[in-house]
């Protein structure tokens, strides 16, 4: 796969008109307010071979109070420097806590949110999605897509905001020193959390999925966006209804409402989350304190460990070296 999208200089200036319904803010304010009416998170310390880290098994109420699992991993000695709430890529789950060691080893707390109804992509999940849906394509992209109230990502994005709330409730966490982070689907969840949560210190958003859907479907046939294309193949004439529902879940719209300092990344060979869909989101992002690292010859893997080290530099800048 070669660079197939716009040239970089065009990507850097790409600001498409946002597709956004008039009740976007009211829809999300109602959704989040309803979810905040359920219970408190529970943290249970568990045994781990990570002798210099504390591991807690987390259960917190997400959308409609549904129980959502997570991990909270932090240094065993001294105060944590800040907390990162991490979201997971498509079809993945929270896996084992021992797989989340980089940030805690650098002195940070890491709150990992499980993704409801996922976890078949090589990393196990412990969270069911108790909500059914109508006929759909295999995967999550078309689940409940008939109406914005029923769409799968309404539940997942609400879980993400409640994960921030849960992390902030922990005695070891300074609620003003919280960053959200994720790659691919996790990046799409992170920008939603950034747009819907007040007072975040930062956001690390890598090769984000769930952004600028109309263009994505025009220029890539890779999964998971291809799930939407296959869904539309049997719903001829319903395209505008589908895109209207998707507009409530478009990362470009969440980015426009986000104000935290941000670090993005993009791969110019990325056929899964095309560069123009990433730049549409980055260019709309509501803070001027933002940066995007471009990997010209990488695809959806992005910068990998090169960029993970940049995460540590970003966190040093946010929280003080």
Give a short overview.
Pfam families: AXE1. This is Acetylxylan esterase. By secondary structure, the chain is an alpha/beta fold.
Give the SSE order as H and E letters.
Answer: HHEEEEHEHEHEHHHHEHEH
Name of the CATH class: Alpha Beta
**In CATH terms, what is the fold-level topology?**
Rossmann fold
**The biggest beta sheet, please?**
9 strands, mixed
Helix content: 25-40%
Extract low-pLDDT stretches.
Answer: none
Q: How would you write the strand order of the largest sheet? A: 1-2-3-5-4-6-7-8-9
Structural class: alpha/beta
Query: How many β strands by DSSP?
Result: 9
- Indicate the CATH architecture: 3-Layer(aba) Sandwich
Number of domains: 1
Proportion of residues in β-strands: 15-25%
- Number of continuous helical runs: 11
Radius of gyration, whole Å: 19 Å
| Silhouette | globular
Mean pLDDT across all amino acids = 96
Distance N terminus to C terminus? 39 Å
Name of the CATH superfamily:
Alpha/Beta hydrolase fold, catalytic domain
Oligomer: single chain
């Amino acid at each position: 796969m070669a660079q197939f999208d716009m040239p970089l200089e065009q990507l850097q200036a790409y600001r498409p008109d946002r597709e956004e319904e008039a009740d976007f803010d009211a829809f999300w304010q109602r959704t989040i307010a309803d979810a905040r009416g359920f219970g408190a998170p529970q943290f249970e310390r568990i045994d781990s071979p990570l002798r210099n880290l504390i591991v807690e098994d987390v259960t917190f109420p997400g959308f409609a109070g549904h129980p959502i699992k997570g991990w909270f991993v932090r240094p065993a000695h001294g105060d944590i420097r800040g907390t990162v709430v991490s979201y997971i890529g498509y079809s993945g789950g929270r896996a084992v806590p021992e797989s989340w060691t980089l940030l805690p080893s650098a002195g940070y707390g890491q709150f990992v949110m499980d993704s409801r109804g996922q976890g078949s992509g090589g990393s196990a999940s412990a969270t069911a999605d108790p909500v059914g849906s109508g006929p759909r394509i295999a995967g999550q992209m078309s689940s409940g897509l008939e109406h914005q109230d029923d769409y799968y990502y309404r539940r997942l994005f609400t879980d993400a905001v409640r994960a921030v709330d849960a992390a902030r409730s922990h005695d070891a966490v300074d609620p003003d020193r919280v960053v959200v982070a994720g790659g691919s689907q996790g990046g799409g969840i992170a920008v939603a959390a950034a747009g819907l949560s007040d007072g975040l210190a930062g956001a690390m958003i890598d090769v984000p999925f769930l952004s600028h859907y109309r263009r994505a479907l025009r220029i890539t046939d890779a999964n998971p966006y291809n799930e939407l294309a296959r869904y539309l193949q049997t719903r001829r004439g319903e395209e505008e209804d589908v895109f209207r529902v998707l507009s409530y879940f478009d990362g470009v719209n969440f980015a426009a409402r986000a104000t935290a300092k941000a670090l993005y990344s993009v791969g110019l060979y990325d056929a899964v989350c095309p560069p123009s869909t990433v730049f549409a989101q980055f260019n709309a992002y509501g803070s001027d304190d933002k940066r995007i690292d471009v990997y010209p010859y990488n695809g959806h893997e992005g910068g990998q460990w090169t960029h993970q080290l940049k995460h540590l530099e970003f966190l040093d800048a946010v929280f003080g070296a």
